[in-house]
Amino acid sequence: MLASSVAYGAIAASKKLHCELLQNMMRCPMSFFDTTPLGRIINRFSKDVDTMDADLRLNIQVKITFDKRRFRRNSNSKSVQHTLGTTLLVSC
Question: Is the pLDDT of residue 77 over 60?
Answer without folding.
Answer: no
